[in-house]
Design goal:
Two copies of one chain form a homodimer. Chain A is mainly alpha-helical and 202 residues long. Chain A has a domain of 141 residues: Tetracycline Repressor, domain 2 (Orthogonal Bundle). Chain A is built from nine helices and no strands. In chain A, α4 packs antiparallel against α5. The radius of gyration of chain A is 19 Å and the shape is elongated. The termini of chain A are far apart. The relative contact order of chain A is 0.11. Chains A and B meet through α5, α8 and α9 of A and α5, α8 and α9 of B. The structure holds a DNA duplex (18 and 18 nucleotides).
DNA sequence: GTCTATAGCTCGATAGAC
DNA sequence: GTCTATCGAGCTATAGAC
């Protein structure tokens, strides 16, 4: 049985190697510009072998997309679950922003691949990926509703639009982030300060 | 001579038809997924004929990219030049945000194609397009410096980072904007209110 | 200035040896 | 489970007729 387990582990390890290679390439080049031969090369295999683990390029990209969202969802949810009982809302939202941005910028090609290529994949894949994405958006709606219920958020702000703006602006950092010019944590703090308090002096 | 002019007009008109078709397709499908046959189809020609007007797909995309930035640059610059002598900075920045967002969301496929595919084109094209893009970023640096000099902007805000965040968050609206659920103008006003004053009640 | 035809590649995916 | 070999399709770009 340990023999069977070892085999399963090896198969899973190869699958992961393919997915890692695909996520990194999709992130850098977009969906259409990445070939299965390119993915296979980066995973140290021949193109034909990839089809033993996945039945199509679309199946690979769907799994990359969903893993990307699930990882950031998990980290932000942990922050919210831990803090919602005992933190000020400003601190709680700041921590959630940091969790999203640090995962995106530092921890995984999957999350950044998701941001970059979600709009480029075939319609059928995009609508499947939207199911998982919507669950993450709902988490942010909960976080913001929690703050509004406590009276800490301006009553005239449209929270659905704010959530779209928030996630969009965090994801847009991917296009210019350079770890040599400032850490993900510093940028996260600065973003939170602007989003919570604004640009203008008063 | 009017004969010569008419010929030039017709040639220019065909060029424009190709660029319009390309901008719209790039915006919808990304760079690599759009073929020259697709562009030619949308411009009512055969693929071979496109090469009379452009020497490669890369030449087409570079022109689309640059026209996109130049159009938004022109509208935002007009707002700044008109308002900087006689408007409050909060109103001036709000108007500039509206000008950028309304051009992006309503007025031209070129600007939205630029936002979507800038990160997908071959490196040589991207670095050429960056020259024009940097001029637009410098305009925003001027707008923000003008506000800071007047003492209307918090002294602790890093304006370079804010400019990156601002343009990134405006461009990100492309991914979710739906004209049936709210006009570009309403979204612009809401964005400006959040960016200038923040989310939290005080 | 636009057409047809095609050269020369690369693509996703499959078949079958090992 | 990974390999080699290949099919059929679609790609950019070019050549040459009209």
């Amino acid at each position: 049985m340990s023999d069977t387990l070892a085999k399963k582990d090896r198969a899973a390890e190869t699958r992961t190697r393919i997915l890692d290679a695909a996520a990194s390439l999709f992130r850098d080049k977009g969906y259409a510009a990445v070939s299965l031969r390119g993915i296979a090369d980066a995973a140290d295999m021949k193109a034909g072998s990839v089809y033993y683990h996945f039945k199509s390029k679309e199946e690979i990209v769907l799994e990359v997309l969903n893993l990307g969202i699930e990882r950031v969802h998990k980290t932000v949810k942990a922050v919210f679950d831990t803090g919602k009982g005992n933190q000020e809302n400003a601190a709680l939202i700041t921590d959630a922003i940091c969790a999203h941005l640090e995962t995106l910028l530092e921890h995984t090609d999957y999350t950044s691949a998701n941001v970059r290529i979600h709009g480029q994949v075939p319609e059928a894949i995009r609508s499947e990926a939207l199911v998982v994405r919507r669950r993450y958006e709902a988490l942010w709606d909960d976080i913001l509703a929690h703050g509004k219920a406590a009276g800490d958020i301006r009553q005239d702000v449209d929270l659905k639009m704010f959530r779209l703006m928030l996630i969009g602006s965090l994801n847009a950092t991917l296009e210019w982030f350079d770890p040599e010019k400032g850490s993900a944590r510093d940028i996260s703090r600065a973003y939170a300060a602007i989003l919570l308090n604004g640009l203008m002096d008063k």
